[in-house]
Amino acid sequence: MPSSPSSATSPPSTAPAPASTAARSKPSGNGPSGAAARLFLPLIALCTAVTAANIYLAAPLLPLIAHDMGSTPSAVAWLASVAQLGYAAGLLFFAPLGDSVNRRRLVAVLSLVATAALLAAAASAGTGALAGAVLVASAATVVPQLLVPLVAERAPADRRARHVAAVIAGLFTGVVAARVLGGLAGEAFGWRAVFVGAAVLTAVLGLATAYILPVERRRRRGPLFAGLVAIPGLVRRSPDLWRACVRQAGMYGAWSALWTSLALLLTEDEGYGMTTAAAGLFGLFGLAASVVAPLAGGLVDRFGAAKVVRSAYGLAALSVPLFWLGGQVMAALCAAAVLVHAALVASHVANQTLALTTTSAPATANTAYVVAGFAGGALASALAGPAFGHWGWGGVCAVAGAWLLLGWTATVVRRVRRGRGWMPGGTP
Fold first, then answer.
1. Taking phi first (over 0 means left), then psi (-120 to 50 degrees means alpha), and beta for anything else, what does residue 70 get?
2. pLDDT tens digit string along 131-157?
3. What is the distance between the alpha carbons of residues 327 and 320, in angstroms, rounded to a whole number?
């Protein structure tokens, strides 16, 4: 979020990148030209969709995996959490390397590692081996978070948010595809075939994307994982980055609490009593995010990140009572699903654009931002399950509302205190 009053007329997302960022992002060599150059953004968006899908690949296949291994879906449900844990580890260790190593080589290596892990998952004979393979594949699936800072660096200043939005649209499309198409393909061809198909797509698109990336000749200074150590200090020195992290943690937490608990409402007899397959198709509402992302990018470029985030929080706040009403009225549930996805992606585009342009270390800043959002979502999801068990769907809606309130008021309170001189450094 903007950290000075003048930001209302001078959006941070459209301001020129800091000199150090511009100097660093200028490649010392050239990537392929011509058709490959024109495919740069579309191919990165497609690669993002495929790699993001790998994180959620196991979730819709759990019943099939359980049947194949002679277990029950509840007994293998922890595999989905393993994927999230692997992704979090990859974010912390690999994503900050985008500031210090050759991204072309790193994207290629991670794509090949993910491919090998997905093939190992397809050949797994037990849940232990499958969990290990899923953990490695998810950790190597941080390629999108290496590509987003590059896209932001190379985009024209007046279209930076729109370029970032294109990659985010690919990410959300991949999440929806994993949950919907992954389940359908698993029913038709078996869960092992889905992992093999994901491995092939990851290898082809990962290597193709690495090929079109600009050649970078960087000399690493300091330890390999210095970026990881630098994250706390970077967030502390940048109030804009801190606000982006906290507000997206609140937004993602609200979305995660509602979306991860929705299957319980849809499938339980006390709710709508749907089949698992029918409830899974509800994930198609996630496509609203892919549609809204380009629109949100244009709005950020035109009006600045602050106004877009405020509007997104307003939409999310409106969706919470609609979700509560949706416990009894399907039309309200459908409307709420569209609103919360629109709010999530609009906030994500605005906050991530701000995170990428507010410091001279965009990859490290992006790591802090994504980890903060991920942590907010994970904690809210952990609270939503018990809330549903004790208070039903209304309890889940209360968790979502509380997360939005915390995400917004925490940043407003700190901003006021900074303005009164209670906190050192920065502008109010």
1. left
2. 999 999 989 988 888 888 888 888 888
3. 11
